[in-house]
Amino acid sequence: MTAPSKQAYVPFVSVANMMKLVLYVGLERVLTDLCAEIEDDFRRWGEFDKTPRVASHSDVGVIELMPTSDGETYGFKYVNGHPGNMKNGLQTVTAFGLLADVQTGYPILVSEMTLLTALRTAATSAMAAKWLAPKNARVMALIGNGAQAEFQALAFKAICGIEEVRFYDIDPAATAKCLENLKGSGIRLIACATAEAAIEGAQIITTVTADKQYATILSDNMVGTGVHINGVGGDCPGKTELHRDILLRSSIFVEYPPQTRVEGEIQALDPDHPVTELWQVITGVAAGRTAAAEVTLFDSVGFAIEDFAALRYVHGKVAQTGFCEQLDMIADPDDPRDLFGMLLRSA
Ligand SMILES: NC(=O)c1ccc[n+]([C@@H]2O[C@H](COP(=O)([O-])OP(=O)(O)OC[C@H]3O[C@@H](n4cnc5c(N)ncnc54)[C@H](O)[C@@H]3O)[C@@H](O)[C@H]2O)c1
């Protein structure tokens, strides 16, 4: 059997190589770089094919495909959300993804995206807060201390200058894990016994819990004026975190309305309730925060362009560092029409 040709191989970033890459570049550097990459792609929003992600729901969770293309490169992510997984020792969210050359349709990168999703979600959250949060915000409440939590804390430190994070989770072991993992981070870490205690003195409130139902992580009386809410955990039909009354007095910013209206906190509102698209704030087409007393809400659900930007970043870094393996992934017969002959000759 002859060895596969050069065209057969696609660079593959395993979990082990993603960890090496992130630690080599530096965690806060990666978060800052991803924030810049995602912001660049939000600035050229009009160049992308956009579609709400394709979701397959079950009683226990969701499996989604998230495609987009800028005409030169195509990307997609496979991602799941299974809030019950954790008690069985499994991740709530796992993901992998791919980039391909639009000219030939040939894949140019395959990558793990469980870690990359946590990184890009945190970078996107901090990017939104950069535009929307009160100036000089230094304290953030972080409610939900699971897999995504430390990434959120570090992104807000690196990108928004957050100095103190106040943690709350229904499971104190999750909070203890965050405090242990972040002890050398330079962030002032406060464990709180209730969500109310966590939001005391916080200018930014991040909710990143997982539950396959409508939950009320924040009720209306808990949210004072002038704060920015980064709502990350409400990202599926029937799965939200904020009381509707908070939405009614917030200025709401979203990624892609056709997707967020189905999946985000705003599923609780009328379908024509006014929202602002984040890309419009970044390009100056729409205003972000306009008053100190305003409550701003980033109703994050995660959009394909963020994953595309993250994969493009990894593609560039892999070319520089070689942190990948080559997968024999594309059948490449000598004569393109002789796929069958290639199979016969392999016997
Ligand atoms: N918006 C996005 O782009 C995006 C991206 C990734 C993940 N997510 C979502 O973020 C959420 C968190 O993901 P994860 O991987 O960290 O999940 P995880 O299961 O690892 O952690 C969730 C944590 O929330 C805690 N929790 C549940 N109910 C709570 C409550 N009422 N109050 C306080 N804490 C509570 C759990 O104890 C757990 O520690 C999920 O809902 C996931 O779907 C969103």
Automatic annotation (TrEMBL):
It holds the Pfam family OCD_Mu_crystall. SUPFAM superfamilies: NAD(P)-binding Rossmann-fold domains. It comes from the Bacteria. Coiled coil: none annotated. Signal peptide: none annotated. PANTHER family: KETIMINE REDUCTASE MU-CRYSTALLIN. This is Ornithine cyclodeaminase. It comes from Pseudorhodobacter antarcticus.
